[in-house]
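ESCALATION

Customer reports they have been waiting on this structure for their group meeting. Please prioritize. Original submission:
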Amino acid sequence: MNRISDSISGEFGRSIWTKFRRGVRDYRLIEGGDRIAVCISGGKDSMLMAQCIARLKRNNEIPFEVEYVIMDPGYTPENLQKITANAQLLGIPAKVYPTRIFESAEKEEKHPCFLCARLRRGWLYKKAQELGCNKIALGHHFDDVIETILMGMLYGSQMQTMMPRLKAENYEGVELIRPLYLVREADIIAWRDFNGLEFIQCACRVTEKKGEDGSKRAEIKALIAELKKTNPAVEMNIFRSPENVNLRTLISYHDGDEYHHFLDDCR
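Update from on-call: job pushed to the front of the queue and completed.
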């Protein structure tokens, strides 16, 4: 376990540890007095996130508390065993909480993935409150961010990004954070392979039946890879685009329920 943990700040010091710490600092994701529910799905991203947070806590730079949470939405026994075995291998003292979320999502014919994500998020917020946590940490990374930006534009006709931290609307006192916000997926894969680790994929029964290749996110991944061939800066340009919004160049925008249109200034 020490070798795996040490590789985060050793071999992957610049590509993972430095970017993790920068995200925590720049977006103030982890602060003194926080009690964080670290949500582990069993994949490479959440496992690395848990390792990084555990290492940050051991360094004792920021006084905070942690609860490592494995929500079991209905994994097969094999997948659940693999998740708990990996947590033990990585020295993560996680607790498993069984739910029937997969069972509920399977009953939804049109949008099972949307329902599953909604049920999982609601459960995590509620569990965080029960555990006395003021933040829940999810393993989304840099690539998830830029893919979300493009998906919103191309499939949702909207300009938005995946925020590094976000206050819950229906769960008072709970905030969502994404500590791997600046970490590239390729570097997470490199860390996994360097240490010879094997993690589960989505493990959703619906996904296993239908496959992932036809998903919108897969299409966006392929599009970005193609654009990168002729424009190496395309990923960072997409990432930074929501930081460089000039409201005077937008047809319309809204701030909560308050709607603004460029013609408002022409009257």
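Sent to customer with the following note: The chain has one domain: 2-243.
Escalation resolved.
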